[in-house]
Every structure is written in structure tokens, then in C-alpha cells.
Amino acid sequence: MHTDVIIIGAGAAGMMCAMQAGQRRRSVVLLDHASKIGKKILISGGGRCNFTNVNTKPESFVSQNAHFCKSALSRFTPSDFIALVKKHRIAFHEKKLGQLFCDGSAQNIIDMLVSECEDAGCRFTLDCKVENIKKEDSFVVTTSKGTFTSESLVIATGGLSIPQIGATGFGYDVARQFGLKIVETRPALDGFNFADEDIREMTELTGLSIDTVVSANGASFRENILFTHTGLSGPASLQASLYWNPGKSLSINLLPTIDAEEWLLETRRSGSKVELKNILAEQLPKRFAEKFCKLYQPSVPISQLSDQKLTELAQLIHDWKVKPARTVGYKKAEVTRGGVDTNELSSKTMEAKKMPGLYFIGEVVDVTGQLGGYNFQWAWASGYAAGQYV
Ligand SMILES: Cc1cc2nc3c(=O)[nH]c(=O)nc-3n(C[C@H](O)[C@H](O)[C@H](O)COP(=O)(O)OP(=O)(O)OC[C@H]3O[C@@H](n4cnc5c(N)ncnc54)[C@H](O)[C@@H]3O)c2cc1C
């Protein structure tokens, strides 16, 4: 079969690219090895798909080249996607921090994209295993469903996260095959695991959630952390895992809304004879206050603690250093950090500079968004950008 465009990967970016190209009257076929379209969209946002973030800005993304995403993001904005969602009468709401979710199921977003693709004349070939790609006069893609040829080939196969629903490193292999560099890939937006000895120490905290500011590698996030049986989860931990580098510590501000030094010193000066763990439990969960005392200061009446000791404890409260062993890994990660090196691609078209006609879009590219709808916005924007040129 010959078409103008072959898109490998019928996920978020692939379908956006297909519908744009189809609307330009390009003939498009989407190939996907999955038997169902949009599995990752379906599980996104807890099943309601956090499909964009109204506060999207380039600073919300991590890449070796921080400027690369700007062009595509400026040409397809959250408002453009919202207009599409409204056109399909999909009810949605803002949950927090600019994050837009479907009121109903993420399936609404999949149905919307499929119907736009079909209206634009695009064809889907599912259960399709790609066996080989060659560039002759055109691209030749050999698959379990026959041979496809095209002028343009778009790789939209996403990242490595959640292999159990079909994520593969296929896109990176194609990039390497055509001589493109890959920025080291890592699971991200997955939270942290403690080292074994810390897991034993912290196990009593499992289930506790604390409103904090978590900082890693210069980025800070004010949201909850959640202690799990192996480490840290919760939105602030997930966000920090995008920025954290192995071997480094996180800094956790356990009481971001008060000055802990002033509070502890004043409590002592008021003549309080209450034990430290009970004082701390006024502002922190009781189990955490007890653990904090066990780790750093046996709980005695606060009146017995010196100014210097209270100042040290306040510093620990505002800058609690935690050294994770690793992030949780691809089985839980929402995204893959790293990917096809943006230096290899045109920021206007997503086309490979070394291989005209070959495009990379979506998560396979070294552009990774923070938690909160940013990764879909990148998928839409990069898919839209390529869709104008393929
Ligand atoms: C649990 C979870 C929740 C998430 N929630 C959100 C959220 O609410 N908001 C947000 O912005 N982001 C969220 N994300 C991230 C978001 O889903 C991805 O960043 C986004 O789907 C990437 O789009 P993509 O088109 O690049 O890749 P995908 O949507 O992953 O699509 C890739 C497609 O390629 C196909 N494919 C893979 N390998 C091959 C192969 N070898 N041959 C043929 N086809 C192949 C796959 O089957 C898939 O259909 C979430 C991720 C996860 C894992």
C-alpha cells in the first residue's frame, strides 16, 4: 500500500498528526502494534485524562535544549485543544493548578481523535508488527500486515513507561538506525524508592500524606508527598522525580506555611513543658512527629531544649534531606525522560535534519513535561507541527 504519510504509533501525538495531515488532503495510514487504540490515553489522569494544562509554558518541560519546544507549543496551544474538546461536546473541568480533566471517561478523548482521523480519511491498521524500515525512493515499512510505502514517515511510538500496555523502545531504535542521537532515557514522574535500610526505618510512615515543598536539582513543587511501603509518592514526589539525578538528595520543606524556628522558640519561651513530639504533632501527622524525634532528637519537654537545638531542628524541618536509592521505574512511570535528541530535529516541523521525510513526535522526543496535562499538550503540539508538513 502506498500513502503520502505512514504514522507508526496511533497514540496521542500520532492521531493528532494524522488528523492534521488528513485535513490537508494527505493520504495517511496509522500503524500500531496494539489491538486497541489509545491504551495510554485511557489510563491517563486516573481514567479521566488530564488532557492539557491552561498554564502551559516552555518552563514546564525538561529537555537538553530548553528552547526546542517553544515553537510547537506556540502554534498549538491549550486553547486550540480545548476548542476541539468543546466541538465534540466533551464535558470537562479544571481540577487544580490549570489541569483540565474530562468529567466522564478518557475514552471521550480517544473517540474524539479517532472520529477526527476518520473524518479526515486516515486509516488505522492495528495488531500490526513493524518488522523492517528502509529508505529507498520512499520509505518502505515491512509489517505483519504487509508492506507500506510513503513519502513521509512519522514515528510516534511514545516512551518506555508502562511496558505492560505495549510501550517499547521502537522509536529510539528507528532513530539510531538513521544515525540520530538519543539523550539517555530514564523513567520519570514515578516517585522514589528508598534504599533497603531506609525502607525498614520508614515503613511505619506508610500511608501518611504531608503538604510540603519538595526540591530537586533547582526545581521546587508545593504539593503533597505520600509515604509508600517502599518510598515516596504523591504529586510533589512525582514532579521532583522528573528533575532528580541519581545519587543526589531531595530537600523537603515539611512546614512550608510557617517559620518553624520562630514557632519552636516561642513555644519554649511561653514556658511550655509539653514534649517535643506532641508540639510537632500540632503541625505534622503524629506518626511523623514521633519518627522525627526518633531520628533526630529524643522527645523531651521542649523546655529542656536549647535555642541552638531548636534552631537546628527547625532547619531540619524546612530542609529535610532525603536520599532516594532510585526512582520507582518504568512500570509506574508516567513518562520517559530523554529520547530523540532535539538537535537532530527541526523545531518547526519535527523532521530529522539528517533524513528528510522522517519525523519524530510526542514522548519519543527529548521533551518531557511536568505532571498535570503538559505531556499531552506536547503530544498535541508536536503532532500538530508535523501534521502541517508531512
Ligand atoms: C498512567 C499514566 C497516566 C498518565 N496521565 C497523563 C495525564 O493525565 N496527562 C498528561 O498530560 N500525560 C499523562 N501521561 C503521559 C501521556 O500519556 C504520554 O506522555 C502521552 O500519551 C504520549 O503520547 P505519544 O503519542 O507520544 O505516545 P503514546 O500515547 O504512548 O502512544 C504511542 C503508541 O505507539 C504504539 N507503539 C509503541 N511501540 C510500538 C511498536 N513497536 N510498533 C507499533 N506501535 C507501537 C503504542 O501502542 C501506542 O499506541 C500519563 C502516562 C501514564 C503512563
How is this structure best described in words?
With 390 residues, the chain is α+β, with helices and mostly antiparallel strands. The protein folds into two domains: 2-187 and 335-387, FAD/NAD(P)-binding domain; 192-327, Elongation Factor Tu (Ef-tu), domain 3. The chain is built from 13 helices and 21 strands. The protein has helices spanning 12-23, 39-43, 68-75, 78-87, 107-119, 170-177, 196-202, 235-243, 260-269, 276-280, 286-296, 307-318, 374-387, and strands at 2-8, 28-31, 50-53, 61-62, 92-94, 99-102, 123-125, 130-135, 139-143, 146-155, 182-188, 192-193, 209-216, 219-227, 231-233, 250-253, 320-322, 326-327, 335-340, 358-360, 368-369. Strands 1, 2, 7, 8, 9, 10 and 20 form a seven-stranded mixed beta sheet that branches. It has a seven-stranded antiparallel beta sheet with strand order 17-16-13-14-15-12-18. α1 runs parallel beside α5. It is elongated and about 85 Å long. The two termini are 17 Å apart. The mean pLDDT is 97. Bound molecules: flavin-adenine dinucleotide (FAD). Flavin-adenine dinucleotide is lined by residues 8-14, 31-34, 40, 43-45, 49-50, 130, 156-158, 161-162, 166, 168, 170, 334-335, 362-364, 373-376, 379.
Topology:
Layout: E1 2-8, H1 12-23, E2 28-31, H2 39-43, E3 50-53, E4 61-62, H3 68-75, H4 78-87, E5 92-94, E6 99-102, H5 107-119, E7 123-125, E8 130-135, E9 139-143, E10 146-155, H6 170-177, E11 182-188, E12 192-193, H7 196-202, E13 209-216, E14 219-227, E15 231-233, H8 235-243, E16 250-253, H9 260-269, H10 276-280, H11 286-296, H12 307-318, E17 320-322, E18 326-327, E19 335-340, E20 358-360, E21 368-369, H13 374-387
Parallel strand pairs: 1-2, 1-10, 2-7, 10-20
Antiparallel strand pairs: 3-6, 4-21, 5-6, 8-9, 9-10, 11-19, 12-15, 12-18, 13-14, 13-16, 14-15, 16-17
Helix pairs in contact: 1-5, 1-13, 3-13, 9-12
The structure holds flavin-adenine dinucleotide.
